[in-house]
Give the backbone structure.
Amino acid sequence: MNYIKRFFQDPAQSFFLFGPRGTGKSTLMKNRYPDALWLDLLNPEILRRFSAQPERLFELVAAHPEKKVVVIDEIQKIPALLSVVHALIEQDKSVEYILTGSSSRKLKRTGVDLLAGRALQKQLHPFMAAELGDFFSVEQALQIGMLPIIVGAKDPLQALQAYIGLCVKEEVQAEGLVRNLESFSRFLEIISFSHAGTLNISTIARDCEVKRKTVENYIEILEELLLAFKVPVFTRRAKRDLSSHPKFYFFDAGVYRALRPKGILDRVEEINGGALEGLVVQHVRAWNDYGKESHDLAFWRTRSGLEVDLIVYGPLGFWVIEIKNSTKVHTVDIKPLEAFLQDYPMAQAILLYRGKERIKKNNVLCLPCEEFLFSLEPNKPLWE
């Protein structure tokens, strides 16, 4: 596959660029800054040299005064470099430092705030449909996800399995984040059933046969490795008794599909439904992170059982979205949206489904999912 132009916009100053392995951070930076001074911490020799003497970065930068952009790839490998970068920024603010990383765990524990606002924190996500254009297919995205390293592979399914083994389980083991890798692997399978669902830690701990605190730690590891995220309940001016549990998602629909056990007791429709919801939510997260304005992402669930999949609230608008993996829209499908509109009549209600027609039922706009995903571009409303 040829180079795909990304929606991510570089800020006009030094910044961190976080994102899971395989999202294309290095490719993007090499394309945009071909003449940058580059420090690749995945290179074992460079890693050893700068781990022993982080202050060597002073000498490297001083030897290249013509370089106005310095890229340090996988900065979490040597957190001690942050204090050197901080000092270099103070010395010469005309030089831009770009610090990429696939994990925020070590940085948080060793002082990412050392840069004290001198470097913004940005995130790179898997591809968006509008970035891929004609290369995008909902069916393919539900099977293999949107990771550049997978989408561009000759055998995407095999590459996805390798990604799970190398970038998830082995990275966790290499970082020494868990004592028992078998226990963590079982946790990954079990929590895959919580993808696109409310997170009940006690139930997961019981199924994993580990303590609740262990599950909380495992989830924190996934979040800090940027492999998963949680979505809170929308409580702004709440008029009803709401659920308190957040929703859980893996960062990419393909990663979820690879981790989710499949057998004769597992309904394909249920697996595809979770993949579709995750695909939509990961797109909206990218739309939000790439834009200039920040929006709150949440979901809505009452204790009586009414639930809406996604709420987007912010400067560009207020949308409530339900996602259905079906080719037809039934009256019962819009009931939760109508209930939400009773409490928040100013919201725009959208139901996404797998059909081909754009229709309107009462105050709910029903859109083909593919049309909605193609329309998403940063700094534009989700839908007008």
